[in-house]
Write a structure and sequence with these properties.
The chain has one domain: Penicillin V Acylase, Chain A, CATH 3.60.60. The protein is of the alpha+beta class and 394 residues long. The relative contact order is 0.15. The chain is globular. The protein has a 9-stranded mixed β-sheet, with helices on both faces. The protein is 36% helix and 24% strand.
């Protein structure tokens, strides 16, 4: 005979369990959906920079970014492509950029591609257009400067790094400045100093106190470049997600097929692993890369090298003179002074000075045709904007 009392009790427990599971499921979904991204600004007037905090999966973060900056992204990407085609219609044709994407795509982290899809869905911009825009830097030459100082070279004992982006101002990328702070479900919180809709990275920093910078060395005479490998702009984002120390970065560089010629600069603001490295990527040559730490007699800039310093800039004599004269006194302001001194006059698009120890940065973009180095460097704290957005570092 059926025991109805026990059966009713069991059924009640089962229903309570089901309802509890559904409650937590929907609560989890709703909590996740409540974060739509956070948009604010730093700086005032002509120095104003948009700050965006996004959170979740790569697709969700791309969607949040696209939703918050829809108009800026559309204008920025359109102007970038239009200028490229106007200057070099054959090099930057749809067919050539699509061919570049097909070649380079296998080396791009899937998370970047998912973010592009989210960006496309939120803005209504064809994904193919977003892919083409991200190929423009891959097939183009760069200039730029990079310097890192740390420990006894500084006044504070912190790790500082500067990155000057010397690149065309005719595309008006400087009209769409944005710092995107990513809070991924998996991986390190990181900041990308960029332009609206460009999710590759020319420079950035992660919450593991690592900073990423670059100086281009690929001459126009080597065009068309072989691009069957990782471009630094996508590799930086991958490393921002995954790498925790300078040794992780070195391992990534040594185990990744790279392309073109670049100087890459990486620094670590952690007390236990503090330091920096300069990497010369030279894939057209038999030796594909060189890695130098500080005061290395084999450094390309030797004999003008110093302890706790790495550098390679658009004006190395000026850089070394300032590094030597200010040795032991470097702080954020002296790094800003150095950034200004080595900027490429008439072609300085964006400059950043980082304090990798405190996760702060000072950022400036060109204003019209006036160099970034002529503008005010705007202070941005990763921690401040994470708190303002109501999120915590992972």
């Amino acid at each position: 005979m059926l025991n109805t009392k026990n059966h009713s009790s069991s059924r009640g427990i089962l229903l309570l369990s089901v309802f509890a599971s559904l409650f937590f499921l929907f609560s989890s979904c709703n909590n996740k959906e409540t974060f739509k991204g956070y948009l604010t600004t730093a700086g005032k007037g002509k120095d104003e920079i948009k700050i965006v905090v996004v959170k979740g999966t790569p697709y969700e973060m791309g969607f949040q970014l696209g939703n918050l900056l829809k108009n800026d992204i559309d204008s920025c990407l359109t102007e970038f492509v239009d200028l490229a085609r106007k200057e070099e219609p054959q090099i930057y044709s749809n067919a050539q950029l699509d061919k570049a994407w097909t070649t380079n795509s296998p080396y791009i982290d899937p998370r970047i591609k998912e973010e592009m899809k989210g960006l496309a869905d939120a803005t209504g911009i064809d994904l193919k257009i977003i892919e083409r825009v991200h190929m423009l830097p891959v097939v183009s030459p760069y200039a730029c400067s990079g310097v890192a100082v740390w420990g006894k070279a500084t006044e504070t004992g912190h790790t500082y790094q500067l990155r000057n982006l010397d690149y065309t101002m005719d595309a008006h990328l400087q009209d769409y400045p944005v710092v995107v702070i990513y809070v991924p479900d998996s991986g390190a919180v990181h900041a990308n100093v960029t332009f609206a809709g460009y999710i590759g990275s020319n420079t950035g920093m992660n919450a593991n106190h690592l900073v990423f910078g670059e100086k281009g060395e690929s001459p126009g005479s080597e065009f068309p470049y072989k691009i069957n490998g990782a471009h630094f702009s996508f590799l930086f984002r991958q490393m921002m997600y995954d790498d925790r120390t300078l040794n992780d970065i070195i391992h990534t560089i040594q185990t990744t097929p790279l392309i073109k010629r670049y100087f890459l600069f990486f620094s670590d603001g952690n007390k236990e692993t503090q330091g920096a490295v300069k990497v010369l990527v030279s894939t057209p040559d038999s030796v594909k890369y060189h890695i130098w730490k500080d005061n290395d007699s084999t450094d390309i800039d030797a004999p003008n090298v110093l302890p706790n310093v790495i550098y390679h800039t658009m004006n190395n004599p000026v850089a070394f003179k300032m590094l030597k004269e200010n040795y032991g006194q470097f702080n954020s302001q002296k790094m800003i002074d150095l950034s200004k001194a080595v900027a490429d006059e008439g072609g300085n698009l964006m400059d950043v000075v980082y304090d990798a120890t405190t996760l702060e940065m000072w950022v400036t973009y060109a204003n019209g045709a006036e160099d970034a180095s002529k503008q005010n460097y705007v202070h941005i704290s990763m921690d401040k904007y994470l708190k303002a957005a109501g999120v915590r570092e992972r």
